[in-house]
Write a structure and sequence with these properties.
By secondary structure, this protein is of the alpha/beta class. Helices cover about 45% and strands about 15% of the residues. A 7-stranded mixed β-sheet has the order 3-2-1-4-5-7-6, sandwiched between helices. It is globular, with a radius of gyration of 20 Å. Bound molecules: S-adenosylmethionine.
Length: about 325
């Protein structure tokens, strides 16, 4: 299943209650890959609603987790909710692409494991004020960190039609990206592009309304703009680059991705056999039981690898 469809299902979930519960994906598999030990130090690079952090802390009662999120509101709310863990949980507001600097500033030495569960949470998607959903009217913002950076509207204004089409094609895999970009730029030029519903209208003008039971026509464009606004692929690239610097020898990096471009980046990084010993050839996907309970898990792919310490691995030494 394609990630944007999952975003759509997240939105469906979101309509059930005002603040939807974010259900952690591939929780058991990710915690097993990290293998937390009492006394170990771990980073959850995408704290969100804290589902994975909580599972790490519960799996190894003496372990400490440093939880990072670029969304300050989410970070503070979840830290408050998990306050029972006391000093075993430390939180840092920032981007995981800056993980090396963030840990250095926090005077944290090498860590035993890092995990990241990419994308946005159900709460962020459901909050109309964030402008990430085409289902509710809100400002065309889409930033995960509302304290800095360009909003989606500012990004659209700064790109010409062709550049915008490239963004929509690359990150949204939208075949009709040229037509979509033309209608969006027309709406912007006419002063008819301020909110998420304005953007959706412009997309519908380009590609037509949704077919009954089909995916919303705006799904791919919204996903593309959100990825671009938040520089999500650059962030992942920086995390993959910095992880060996901050991991202790034999430390583990586990990443859950929802987009084929992200999974390809992780796969390529782990192919560097001088640096990484990948745990699995193929990514771990959710079981039928998990996808049944949590449709969002359908497009999740988890890859994990151990940092080679430069010493011979047991299999090579024998
Ligand atoms: C899918 S949610 C994580 C959910 C979490 N694993 C849980 O079980 O509740 C992703 C979270 O990562 C944050 N995030 C995404 N990209 C980030 C980045 N580059 N740096 C820091 N946080 C990021 C988002 O703000 C969001 O809260």
């Amino acid at each position: 299943m394609w990630a944007a469809e999952v975003e759509e299902e997240r939105a469906d979930d979101a309509q059930v209650s005002d603040v939807p519960e974010h259900v952690p994906v591939l929780k058991r598999e990710t915690i097993e890959a990290i293998g937390p030990q009492s006394g170990g130090l771990y980073v959850d690079a995408t704290f969100g609603a804290g589902g994975h952090t909580q599972a790490l802390l519960e799996a190894a009662p003496g372990a400490t987790v440093i939880a990072i999120d670029r969304d300050r509101d989410v970070l503070l709310r979840t830290a408050e909710r998990l306050s029972q863990f006391g000093e075993r949980l430390r939180v840092i507001h920032g981007k995981f692409g800056d993980i090396a600097q963030l840990l250095q500033q926090a005077a944290v030495g090498k860590v035993d494991g890092i995990m990241a569960d990419l994308g946005i949470s159900s709460m962020q998607l459901a909050d109309a004020d964030r402008g990430m959903s085409f289902r509710a009217d809100g400002p065309l913002d889409m930033r995960m960190d509302r304290t800095r950076g360009e909003t989606a509207l500012e990004l659209i204004e700064s790109l010409d039609q062709e550049e915008l089409a490239d963004v929509i094609f690359r990150y949204g895999e939208e075949r009709r990206s040229r037509r979509v970009a033309r209608c969006i730029k027309q709406a912007q030029g006419d002063g008819r592009l301020q909110t998420t519903l304005d953007l959706r209208k412009a997309v519908v003008r380009a590609v037509g309304p949704a077919r009954v039971g089909g995916v919303d026509p705006a799904t791919r464009t919204f996903q593309a703009l959100r990825i671009a606004v938040n520089g999500e692929l650059d962030e992942l690239g920086q995390l993959l680059e910095s992880a060996p610097e901050v991991l202790a020898p034999a430390g583990v990096l586990a990443i859950i991705s929802f987009h084929s471009l992200e999974d390809r980046m992780v796969k390529r990084a782990f192919q560097d056999r001088e640096r990484w010993e990948a745990f699995f050839k193929k990514p771990v996907c959710a079981s039928p039981a998990e996808t049944h309970l949590n449709p969002r898990s359908r497009s999740a792919k988890m890859r994990a690898a151990r940092l080679r310490s430069g010493d011979l691995l047991p299999a090579e030494a024998s």
